[in-house]
Amino acid sequence: MLLPRTIRLACLLMCTLCLAAGYAMYGWGLVALTGASIGLAWWLASSRPSTPLPLAALVISMAWSAAGLLAGAPALLMILSATFALASWDLVLFDHNLSDNPISSAATRVLFQNRHYRSLALALGLGLLIVLVGRTIQVQVPLIIIALLVLLALFSIDRLWRALKA
Amino acid sequence: MNKVVILLVIIFSLLLAALVTTHADLIWLALLCCAYLGMGFLQSPATRKVKLSATRSVEKNTTNTLATMDVSVEITNQGTDLVRLVLSDPLQFGMTIKDGQTTQTALVQSGESAVFKYTFQSERGNFAWKTIRARLSDSFGLIETELDLPAEAKIQVHPELNKFRPFPLRSQRTLHSAGSIPARFGGSGTDFWGVREYQPGDPLRRLDWRLTARHPHQFFTKEFEQEEIADIGLILDARQKTNLQLGEDSLFEHAARATASLAEMFLRQGNRVSLLVYQRRYASVFPGYGKLQLNRILHTLARITPESDSSLNSLNFLPIRMFASHSLIVVISPLLSGDWQFFRRLRAYGYQVLLISPDPLAYARPILPADRDSQLAIRLTRLERQTEINQITQLWIPVIDWQVSQPLAPLVRTALRPTRLRRES
Q1: Contact A127 B41 (CB under 8 A)
Q2: Fold of the domain built from segment(s) B229-424
Q3: What are the domain boundaries of chain B?
Q4: Do the first three CATH levels of B48-157 and B229-424 match, i.e. the same topology?
Q5: Which residues pair with B402 in a beta bridge?
Q6: Using one digit for the tens of pLDDT, what is the confidence trace for B240-281?
Q7: Class of the B48-157 domain?
Q8: Which residues pair with B356 in a beta bridge?
Q9: Does the beta-carbon distance from A102 to B107 stay under 8 Å?
Q10: Global confidence as pTM
């Protein structure tokens, strides 16, 4: 029980710290506000994981990160904060699912947890890597092409969704 | 809310915000969510690779309404990968869970088994399971696949039995097997029957020495009343018109319980018992003895539900000739108007009859309105019922106007007193 809790708390802490550090250039008041709101949201989400509070905490974290990016805060810190928010959301729900005492041996449970942590690290690490590479390689894309790409993404997701439902 | 939907909403919101504000950095946030979503899709279990088997076992094949029943389903993973399953086995109508859960998460490694257990209590009836539902998902819980694994089992829930103490019966006709019912002729029973002249072969211990002393050169033998078994038929009225449902309880359930209890008691006494249930398709159990017969009767009672049909207006068309002539017929019916004619028919065929009539008015009292009109209607209904009962009583049939909250055994004992059912010459 100690490892999952440590990992979850570390993610929550990192999320809050990155966001607070990103907003530090705008004054301590804003740092305190972001820190307090994010901390409170995730504390409530952790204590009541079966409610929509984890989703609310994720949305608040993402909104702060997006607002920071729009306001010109350090992009890397904002992206890191969003990454940890996503990880926290996943871990809160994962721990809640495992707290239902699934029918399994202790070894299987540990194996399943480890596999989940590996997958999460892989997914978010890959995402971060793509973002960092993407930000390093600067390509000017016209707005119209972005719009077309969005339409393409929409179409792809729709097809994917239908295939999954079928 | 589904995690995929949540992530898609966040992704599209971020993309929209990026388009509106023309700020490309927001797209990077959306990309993170896409990476998470993509990993979930990649890890979703392929249905064709998942090999699961399920075996269901129930504690017993038959039970009664008071007993609890354990169900366990063993899921074995014959595939190669560890799977996370959400197993659900919805309760059927009439079942209530007593212990455990009907939905349970399980983590099953390749070659391992997980056992899913719960305990339930059920109403009377036949119940069958065919499958168990398993929901497979990736480790992020994004993509879920539902599988119905075959796991068959059947159980039968009999009506609850109240063990009655044996009643002293006086049957018009008995069968020539030793039992507990006085047969009205001399034999090897326990009650004194009479004295007759000694015949060679009579056991000496039966000699009436006092009478022999009074009559020199003559011997007399004491006779005891032979005790034999009787033929008993039970008729249960399963017409919907005569049934009343109050929440989970119903008047018919009380009637079914009474039938089962009487059948058990009569069979325990060694009698030959048969059953006829009046519904759209008659359910019948032909005369028989012993525990096997009791099982047959309980099996029939377990699957009976009250039915409504226009052809079920009168008891008059019951095939009563399935009962042996002069047998004792116990009818369990709340009665409808005009049913007394059926009892006249029974008496005309020479049957000895007992009517147990669960009182619908007393049963429905808690829900009956107290206004003046309703009270008048209740009085009229009671009068109508009383008239019906009086007409049946005039046929020399003992009637038990049974308020189902009262214990039945003392009422039946009083009604079956030998003086009431004396042999008609």
Answers
A1: no
A2: Rossmann fold (3.40.50)
A3: 2-42, 48-157, 229-424
A4: no
A5: B358
A6: 888 888 887 889 999 999 999 999 998 988 888 999 998 877
A7: mainly beta
A8: B332, B400
A9: yes
A10: 0.68
